[in-house]
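Hi there,

I know you've been waiting on this one. I reran it after we fixed the sequence typo, so this is the corrected version. Both the input and the resulting structure follow.
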Amino acid sequence: MRFGRRIGAIAPAKLSKAALLAQAREATGLEDFGDPWFERPMDVLLEAVRGEARLNDAGTLAAEKQFHHVLRDRLYAQMWFDRHPEILARPIPHPVVIVGPMRSGTTRLHRLLAADRRFAHLRSFETISPVPRPGFDEVLAGKAEDFRPKLARRILRVARLANPRTLSIHPTGPFEPEEELGLLVASMWGMKHEAQWTVPSYGRWCEGEDATPAYRHMANLLRLAGWSQHESSLRPWILKTPQHMLDLPALLRVFPDARLIFTHRDPQQVVGSAASLAWNQTIIYSDHARAADIGREWLRKTEVMTARMMEARKTIAADRLIDVQYDAMDRDWQSTMARVYRFLDLDMDSALPGMKRFVERSRALKRKPHRYSLAEFGLERDEVYERLERYIDRFDIPIERGRAEPGRRLRARA
């Protein structure tokens, strides 16, 4: 990238809102971005990217491409809504939403449920590119091929070349079930930005804002995905992304009949794994990332997420939620899933063969285990346990034994 810029083959990235909006309009020939609310988080994010992220040459180019991709998709989404108003009329009945901290087993649970054909789910290429391109009517008619899976395959290949560890941290493929994080990014919203760039001011700004407009747009993109899949609007969606830990009130305003599955894991594993994921992405885009800073930020973020989740749960009826321990899923996933299915009032027998196939396929996808430690990020487990003691006690989370801890209940477990 540096060489390309030196010889003039690659133009400097444009990271101003006016330039990015104009570039998207010019590329598509469209004008309507939909609800202008997204410009508020976009302003804050751009300022943080320019002032805090310290991106390298590859990082600035990738950032420009990402902003362009999101803005172009907003224009195309509004085009589809205008052409096919029936899209926005599609119901989203009683979705099943998995809510848990990063790295707490949400992906495994999501993909097990996605193996059941009674549920609808997003595929990886649809969260990377949520919006079909112009000409998709030809795809619907069987006269052309959807370009998005090819694009997703290229993007995943580049990500693995940039840092091969990404495959062991979050194994995926274009058609694997995937979370709706990209649908929130469509409103310039969410932790994805914090996990790839050093933008603490943006993260704290989002923590103080109402995310309802971002969730409304996410719901409309789900409707668009269902329409493009020829998906029955009667099948409940399976949703999950750790962002819901922060934004449960917004999620429940948009999906008032959602059924919620909460996942829990030893906080030292959650914080260490989340910091590792963020570190392995941030170092692609910046040469100035510091592991200790990333560790501190994801400890803070996990503390905020768990506190806000616990507060929001006070308003949710007990028969609408269930708690699942990561350790229980590790020990006996079939028994744990049977308990989840009883909560959903569904028979699990028809889904079990698909779940077993997923378990076998996931072993093939995950070539190497994800290895990390708190020490890599300047953290100690006693501090993690102390900061997240209320969360551990509230959900009786199994934690690592053999330590001296402040706090009576933690000492008792040790």
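Quick highlight: Residues 57-83 form the longest helix (27 residues).

Best,
R. S.
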